[in-house]
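Batch job 17 of 40 flagged for manual review because the log was empty.
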Amino acid sequence: MTGEKEIFVKDFKRRLYSFALKLIEFIDNLKVDMVSKRISDQLLRSGTSILSNYVEGQSASSKKEFTNFLTISLKSANESKMWIALLRDSKRTTKDKTDWFLNELDEFSKILASSILRCKGKR
């Protein structure tokens, strides 16, 4: 890995880790009801999966395996956007509490999609 690429990977991992910590705090502060509980369980799985699959991909044994882990991270980011939007639109939280998460997830999706395309030689 080149120096610039190593810095990007470390920074991106830190950003994903910070996101996961903020997501845990966000979920802990949701009101307690049956729907919030079900959605927050799904959100916790998909939201933390972005980080775990990205980290796992860093030790992949092939380019194909690496690309597969990035693809799972991308799918998890997209799924997380949907869960957060459902929480917001069902009035279990407010727009101001979800905007940051949705913006971060949008950026994660763009970064991951770009990386996947680059790995596949399409960019």
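Reviewer: the log was empty due to a logging misconfiguration, but the result itself is present. Residues 33-119 form a domain with the de novo design (two linked rop proteins) fold (CATH 1.20.1440.60). Unflagging and moving on to job 18.
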